[in-house]
Design goal:
It is built from three helices and no strands. Helix 1 crosses helix 3.
């Protein structure tokens, strides 16, 4: 196995930072119960109507 170059290590660190932020955002939105429960509706439009308020509430929580 070869060692990574400095550029590859920097790219990996940047990618990891983005991944962590996204993971935290998703877990914050999932704190609303209806986002984590089983969802049986097949309407794609209704999917957005569930996730958008959850993400909006989480964003509001972050800037508050």
């Amino acid at each position: 196995m070869t060692a990574l170059t400095e550029a590859q290590q920097a790219a990996n660190r940047a990618h990891a930072r983005r991944r962590v932020k996204i993971g935290h955002a998703l877990s914050g939105a999932k704190r609303l119960g209806y986002v984590t429960q089983a969802y049986r509706n097949e309407s794609l439009v209704f999917n957005d109507r569930l996730i958008a308020p959850a993400c909006g509430i989480w964003n509001w929580h972050l800037i508050k």
